From TrEMBL:
Signal peptide: none
Gene3D superfamilies xrefs: MetI-like
Record flagged with keyword Methyltransferase: no
Any one Pfam family match given in the protein's UniProt record, by short name: BPD_transp_1
ABC transmembrane type-1 domain sequence ranges: 81-270
Membrane topology: Multi-pass membrane protein
Keywords: Cell membrane, Membrane, Transmembrane, Transmembrane helix, Transport
Compartment list: Cell membrane
Any one GO biological process: transmembrane transport
Protein family according to the UniProt entry: Belongs to the binding-protein-dependent transport system permease family.
Protein name: Peptide/nickel transport system permease protein
Transmembrane segments: 21-41, 85-108, 129-153, 203-227, 247-270
Highest taxon above the source species: Bacteria
């Protein structure tokens, strides 16, 4: 006697396609975050100089070689992750926080105030981000704090415009109209009904914007407008090593690779999250 086995139902099991790019990006970002949290786990003192081993090529003793002062480039790149990512995160927090406040204000106030704020967002967004940051630094001066605030202000309009657009939609939603009819206070209306429903795309945009902030920070530090030597910041390391590029390429190229890998990883993960949020994930 033979027993008939149940036939598999088509479409019940869906295998996801492998995503090597996303996997690689996640691995790179995990390494970067580990370097931010525990740099001593991978590297030694980034400021320790050895005049007897100046501009040595990558080797088993010095994986990324040494710079013009005999400092280990690998140690400096690992410790530089904390400096570069901290600047990017702080600038993104400023941009997101101020963008949410100004976007809510534009979307909930009278038409005249909305018009003024919207034109201000458009005017700021019309400038290249680096030029806008340079303008602020020219007024406030150089340094890490000025760099963070400058990047935050330069990237603020993008978040503010998104929050404003979301607010204009949510304020006309039936549940908001009902809350107003039942006498909800303005503060309760904003905090409980409007704000939670306009923040949906912001974390995704912030992930993508973080990569942009890290890249801008590295570029401005390369120009000498951020953390100053001997701080092991990736952009500053690029600037220090450019004078020796023809004889010691590793002093500039490898910090540049760290910037590139981190920014690409943040962008890949951010785009993946954006696709999932928009329902385009397969």
């Amino acid at each position: 006697m033979t027993v008939a086995l149940p036939r598999p139902v088509a479409g019940r099991l869906t295998l996801r396609r492998p995503r090597p790019g996303l996997t690689a990006a996640t691995a790179v970002l995990a390494l970067a975050l580990t370097a931010v949290a525990w740099p001593s786990l991978f590297a030694g003192d980034p400021l320790a100089a050895d005049p007897l081993h100046v501009l040595e090529a990558p080797s088993a003793a010095h994986w990324f070689g040494t710079d013009q002062l005999g400092r280990d480039v690998f140690d400096r790149v690992v410790h530089g992750a904390r400096h570069s990512l901290s600047i990017g995160v702080a600038a993104t927090v400023i941009a997101v926080g101020a963008g949410i406040l100004l976007g809510l204000l534009a979307g909930l106030t009278h038409k005249a105030a909305d018009e003024v704020l919207s034109r201000g967002f458009d005017a700021l967004a019309a400038f290249p981000l680096v030029l806008l940051a340079l303008l602020f630094i020219a007024i406030a001066g150089t340094g890490t704090v000025s760099l963070i605030v400058a990047i935050g202000i330069a990237t603020l309009p993008h978040y503010a415009r998104v929050v404003r657009a979301q607010t204009l939609v949510v304020r006309r939603a039936p549940y908001v109209t009902h809350a107003v009819a039942f006498g909800a206070s303005r503060t309760r209306l904003v905090l409980r009904h409007v704000l939670p429903n306009v923040l949906g795309p912001i974390p995704v945009l912030a992930m993508i914007g973080l990569g942009e902030a890290v890249l801008i920070a590295a570029g401005l530090s390369f120009l000498g407008l951020g953390p100053q030597p001997p701080s092991p910041e990736w952009g500053a390391m690029l600037s220090e090593g450019r004078g020796y590029l023809h004889i010691a390429w590793w002093a500039s190229v490898l910090p540049g690779c760290a910037v590139t890998a981190t920014v690409i990883s943040l962008t890949v993960i951010g785009r993946h999250l954006q696709n999932r949020f928009e329902g385009r994930h397969q």
